[in-house]
């Protein structure tokens, strides 16, 4: 079994357990459930830098990245750096994150927050909303066309933006539908962990103009972003490159200043 299949199998058990512990009615009663959400797609369209900065403690591909940081400090730092949005990993088993991380980030910032999760069930979208997310990620590699449609429409009806992630042409073809806001190309193959920015470049021309194009993973230089912009990308999802430093907000700030100069 590849790592992605393993993650999804564990996720099914986890979601079943959570559903049995916390009923939907309880999620809907969260104060955060009834709030106006912010659009990441709109923020990216209006930005020069297009940086979406991620909070990620560890990952299956890198194991330890940074365990010492406080998520609220990271969120505040990212906001002050002028990022367009923040991605918060909420998977605990493989990435060391949690829904509490999302709540804590929400408590200190107004920037659009993405729940970075392996979403396979509508229940997780309600959780995202109840814990302060503005955006959800859907991963084409683990969903059928029908599931992408049902889940993205559910997210839209809750006022959330949808970032749909693909890694190849087949995934892209089955995914294009009006209920998505952003199309993300993951430069990292989630089954092999191989990273290549060529993936973003190769798929760019196949993404219709109405979707904001986001390039994800393995981005660590200003040159890479300038290059990807030539291919129509308006969003750049960066995790490790910021999180491996002692002060991700400060590093992101310097990075964005240099990008905009
Ligand atoms: O740390 P990086 O290489 O900058 O990558 C960030 C982000 O793209 C990556 O964490 C990611 C992209 N898609 C995912 C899906 C699940 C978990 C994680 C991810």
UniProtKB/TrEMBL annotation:
GO MF annotations, alphabetized: indole-3-glycerol-phosphate synthase activity; phosphoribosylanthranilate isomerase activity
Reactions accelerated catalytically: 1-(2-carboxyphenylamino)-1-deoxy-D-ribulose 5-phosphate + H(+) = (1S,2R)-1-C-(indol-3-yl)glycerol 3-phosphate + CO2 + H2O
Pfam family, one: IGPS
Entry keyword set: Amino-acid biosynthesis, Aromatic amino acid biosynthesis, Decarboxylase, Lyase, Tryptophan biosynthesis
The protein's annotated pathway: Amino-acid biosynthesis; L-tryptophan biosynthesis; L-tryptophan from chorismate: step 4/5
Signal peptide (residue range): none
Transmembrane segments: none
Domain Indole-3-glycerol phosphate synthase: 4-251
Keyword Lyase found: yes
Enzyme Commission code(s) on record: 4.1.1.48
GO biological process: L-tryptophan biosynthetic process
Family, per entry: Belongs to the TrpC family.
Protein name: Indole-3-glycerol phosphate synthase
Record organism: Flagellimonas aquimarina
Gene designation per UniProt: trpC
């Amino acid at each position: 079994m590849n790592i992605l299949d393993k993650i999804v199998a564990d996720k099914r058990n986890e979601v079943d357990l959570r559903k049995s512990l916390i009923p939907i009615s309880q999620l809907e009663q969260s104060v955060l459930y009834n709030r106006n959400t912010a659009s990441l797609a709109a923020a990216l369209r209006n930005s020069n830098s297009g940086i979406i900065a991620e909070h990620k403690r560890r990952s299956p591909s890198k194991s330890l990245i940074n365990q010492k940081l406080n998520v609220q400090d990271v969120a505040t730092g990212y906001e002050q750096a002028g990022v367009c949005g923040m991605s918060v990993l909420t998977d605990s088993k493989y990435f060391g994150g949690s829904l509490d991380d999302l709540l804590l980030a929400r408590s200190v910032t107004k920037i659009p927050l993405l729940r970075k999760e392996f979403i396979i069930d509508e229940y997780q979208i309600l959780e995202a909303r109840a814990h302060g997310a503005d955006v959800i990620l859907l991963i084409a590699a683990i969903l059928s066309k029908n599931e992408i449609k049902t889940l993205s429409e559910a997210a839209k009806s809750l006022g959330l933006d949808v970032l749909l992630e693909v890694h190849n042409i087949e995934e892209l073809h089955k995914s294009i539908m009006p209920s998505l806001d952003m199309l993300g190309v993951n430069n990292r193959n989630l089954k092999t962990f191989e990273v290549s920015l060529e993936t973003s470049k190769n798929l760019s021309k196949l993404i219709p103009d109405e979707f904001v194009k986001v390039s994800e993973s393995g981005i660590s230089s200003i040159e890479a972003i300038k290059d990807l912009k030539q291919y129509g990308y308006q969003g750049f999802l960066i995790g490790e490159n910021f999180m491996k430093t002692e002060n991700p907000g400060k590093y992101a700030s310097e990075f964005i200043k240099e990008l905009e100069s």
